[in-house]
Amino acid sequence: MLGLTQQVRQQTAKTGRSFLALCIAIVITLTLFRWGSVSFYVSPVVDSLNVATGRADEQSCINCHVQAEEFSATGHANALTRAGSPEVLELLSRLGDSQQALDEGMLVDPQAGVSLVDGSSSISLDWCFGSGRHARTWVSTIGDSQGATDLLEFRWTWYSESDAFDVTPGQPEEHFSTHLGPFGVLYDHSKARRCFACHSSYLAIDDGRLRLEDIETGVNCQRCHGQRAAHVASDGKIRDNFWQTASPIDAVNRCAQCHRRPEEVDADELRADDPDLARFQPVGLIRSKCFTVSQKMTCTTCHDPHRPLEAQDSLGDWQCIQCHDPAESSDTLCKAGQPENCLQCHMPKVQSTDPLRFTDHWIRVR
Predict the structure, then answer these.
(1) N or C: less crowded end of the chain, CB within 10 Å?
(2) Distance between CA atoms of 93 and 111, rounded to whole angstroms?
């Protein structure tokens, strides 16, 4: 009996130590999560943007590569703008004419920010996300009690298709009844880093605080091609051949760093009838038979990332004819007998739950 009691005590003590170790591990993990060392929202790609060494002056790309000349007009290059830029200020001034914003008691001063009619609170809008091709969303950066940078996503977004303001994607139709509720949704610094990382090319971070003054806005050459100081110093002799040698899935995943990796989408969202899935082009593309069968298809098979969409034929049939050429008897052709307008049936624009439409890259017989 005494031996059994000792065994129970030993087992209880062992269990207690295991439970204590588990509690400590959870606390450490949560602490690291809070400060960004462990995060479900921040990938290693985000951390790599915090490395300044090895970077070249972007002007050096323009000096040697003709592709860089048009790049400044692309949506990628204009993915992030300081809220004080004239174009953004003019756009934000229109919010003052929005009946929805007026109904919620907002006053808009593009130079000073946004405030409530009753004067109880106000915020400044510091950055504008989006090139304007689809939309523009403003944010305010706020330091938290630990000195890290949080992000307030403004409640109102301007949509290009309607040329009007409406509720920002993902935000509730009725704002939260909190101090910041009328202005939008507050995210912690982990989400703030992820947002800035996909809209910038250099993101300096000190213990969770974003050095906003040092951000390189927009997606530039080195964001996609890697740091190029050695390439420039060697007069082009040192090269990174990733885009020439990468497998199709690796190439798509490079774009998917920001356009959404498939594993970042919940399984219950991977439905062909989900209209919001069209926003995440790589997710649909890798499920397309065109991708799985071709063994060579990537995003750049159809898109030239160095030129604005207006300067390239991104909506024609030439991309499809690369593999579905009526002149080639071995190619699979349209069973409906349509020789053109492939995208209209197989890649239509899809209306999401927000005032946005995206070309569906899940290429299929619908």
Answers:
(1) N
(2) 9
Residues 6 or more apart from 70 whose CB is under 8 A from it?
A: 306, 307, 308, 311
Asked if residue 284 lies in contact with residue 277, where contact means CB atoms within 8 angstroms, the answer is yes
Burial of 330 (0-12, 13-18, 19+ CB in 10 A): exposed
Instruction: Note if the pTM is more than 0.90.
Output: no
Strand ranges for 20-173 from DSSP E = 80-82, 106-109, 113-116, 122-123, 127-129, 135-143, 149-159, 164-167
Classify burial at 278, counting beta carbons within 10 Å of its beta carbon; exposed 0-12, middle 13-18, buried 19 or more.
buried
Instruction: State which H helix or E strand residue 193 sits in.
Output: helix 189-197
pLDDT (tens digit, 9 = 90+) per residue, 35-50? Answer: 333 333 345 556 678 7
Q: 9 Cβ partners below 8 Å, 6+ apart?
A: none
Rg (the chain; Cα; Å): 25
Q: Residue 26 CB: number of other CB atoms within 10 A?
A: 10
Rounded average pLDDT over 265-286: 88
Q: Would you say 184 and 153 are in contact if contact means Cβ atoms under 8 Å apart?
A: yes
Q: Give the C-alpha separation, 196 to 302, whole Å.
A: 27
Six-digit token pair at 276?
Answer: 């919001």
> How many C-beta atoms lie closer than 10 Å to residue 215's C-beta?
19
**Of 199, 230, 226, residue with least CA distance to 215:** 199
